[in-house]
Design brief:
mainly alpha
């Protein structure tokens, strides 16, 4: 399995949806739609996105750490 890191290409904002899409083997568009639909439900989805944006390393920084 690949390490979870925000890609440097194909990201719109922070790259969180693109990273999750790559990790789970789906398209980033599908992951973005799932995220937007989940925001209609009550819960801390937006806060989770911000936390992942802060906690997940960028792909170029993750490569140098290996």
């Amino acid at each position: 399995m690949s390490r979870l890191a925000r890609p440097t290409d194909g990201r719109m904002m922070g790259g969180v949806c693109a990273a999750l899409a790559r990790r789970f083997g789906t398209s980033s568009t599908t992951m973005r739609v799932i995220f937007l639909l989940s925001c209609l439900l009550p819960g801390p989805q937006f806060l989770l996105y911000i936390a992942l944006w802060i906690l997940l390393p960028s792909e170029d920084k993750a490569r140098t750490a290996w």
